[in-house]
Amino acid sequence: MKNIYPNIFKYNKNNLSKAKIILKKNGIAAVPTETVYGLAGNAYSDKSIIKIYKLKKRPKKNPLIIHYHSISMLKKDAYIDKNFFKLYKKFSPGPLTYILKKKEKSKISSLANSNLNSIAVRFPKNIATKNLLKQLKFPLAIPSANISSSVSPVKATDVFDEFGKKISFILDGGKSKIGLESTVVSLYGKIRILRPGAIGHVKIGKVLKKKLSILKKTKKLESPGLLKKHYSPGIPIKLNCKKPDDKAAFIVFGKKYKKGKNIFNLSYSKNLNIAAKNLYKTLRKIKKLGYKKINIVKIPNKEIGIAINDRLKRAAY
Ligand code: TXA
Ligand code: MG
């Protein structure tokens, strides 16, 4: 039988070496992380970064997150302080991205951080990508592996759906455990949350002994990725619905909703973490089934529900 996914490679030692070779040659490989799948390229290489922006059709003013295995390598590229260490100790490796001041001598391609004075950095937990980073002498710029403004991929075949054979290598490390992009916390200037995620602002605030705000609107686009329209499945979404409109796919939460062909339940047990994990998968599935519109019930705005609602609001914009 013909392999319909000729560019998907299961995580093992041999395939990790193949990914390494591609990245060392400034090529691009899709990699798994615990949040979502990403498109990885050498963060020190302009050539790799240009490829990433082209593939994603991403506006150049939207900077990428730089992924590291260790603090020792990060120290060459960014200034770190007490607050960083406190959060790092508690949440890294994991789904937390820090905005830090970039060092003048850093080798990070200025294209990767849109020429800003800051860089976004993260230490992913997924074993495949963690090991990959450990074996490289440079950090990886890894944005989510989707065409700009569409839904992020949470498994290897989702990446294939986005890019087909336009990328030569997709490292399959199983389904993303969390299913939503990392929390972005700015430690550069005023400390605050730029993008909500699995690690909530309350937890972060507790560690820093500080009440944190979540960025809503700014004059200047402070986290340029926080574009109003984003995470969109490409069909209209209506939020806070009680009943579905005619012919709409209906996304629900909790067991009070009956089953049906057009009913998609994010979590029968009203577990917000499960709902987060199912969200992008469900949006992709509904689109594939050919529905022309999506209705969704109200999702509780607490814990990771805050991140779910953030993504839904942008998807519906
Ligand atoms: O979970 C994640 O963070 C995933 C996985 C693959 O690691 N990556 C991801 O990357 O979501 P991306 O490129 O889709 O989103 C990066 C976000 C954007 O909102 C971008 O604007 C913001 O981080 N960002 C990057 N550098 C920044 C900077 N220097 N200052 C403020 N925001 C920044
Ligand atoms: Mg993204």
In N-to-C order, the SSE pattern is EHEEHEHHEEHEHEEEHEEEHEH
Average residue-wise pLDDT: 95
Shape: globular
N-to-C terminal Cα separation, in Å?
A: 43 Å
In total, the number of strands is: 14
Strand order of the largest sheet: 2-3-7-4-6-5-9-10
What fraction strand? Answer: 15-25%
Give the oligomeric state of the chains in this entry, treating copies of one chain as homo and distinct chains as hetero.
Answer: single chain
Task: Name the bound molecules.
Answer: threonylcarbamoyladenylate, magnesium ion
Structural class: alpha/beta
Q: Gyration radius, to the nearest Å?
A: 19 Å
Question: Any low-confidence stretches, pLDDT <50, length ≥5?
Answer: none
What is the tally of helical segments? 9
For the largest beta-sheet, the strand count, sense and barrel status come to: 8 strands, mixed
Helical content stands at: 25-40%
